[in-house]
Amino acid sequence: MAFTPKTKEFKSTAGNEYTFQNVPHSKQAEIVDDGTGIHGKVLNSRMMPLILKHIVVVPNGLTMDDFESWEELEEVTTEAFSFLRTGQ
User: Fold this and answer.
1) How far is CA 45 from CA 15, 24, 38, 49, 86, in A?
2) In Å, how far are 10, 19, 24, 47, 50 from 40, measured between CA atoms?
3) What is the chain's Cα-based Rg?
4) pLDDT band, residue 12 (cuts 50/70/90)
5) Which CA distances in Å does 58 have to 25, 40, 68?
6) Helical pair 70-86 and 25-35, crossing angle rounded to 10 deg
7) Where do runs of H (alpha helix) occur along 1-88?
8) In the chain, where are the structural domains located?
9) What span, in angstroms and rounded, lies between the C-alpha atoms of 56 and 53?
10) What is the pLDDT of residues 25-82, one digit of tens each?
């Protein structure tokens, strides 16, 4: 069975619209490995950029500093990470 990407539209509380796209399981494992510390704790400074680069596809090329508030950055990356893990 071949990998077929899925997408999800998301509108933040601030009213901004984003599109998420999942990745193959091998890439998902790489993202999780690179974004967590030695004891499996998510490291925001590593995970958030990976989520923005590989999962948030619209708008493309976002960085952590493109967000006006930490609240929206956290909301978007948390929702994108949930989509990565569950596909929903």
Assistant:
1) 24, 23, 14, 7, 22
2) 27, 27, 21, 12, 16
3) 13
4) very high
5) 21, 29, 17
6) 140
7) 25-35, 44-54, 70-86
8) 7-86
9) 6
10) 999 999 999 999 999 899 999 999 999 999 999 999 999 999 999 999 999 999 999 9
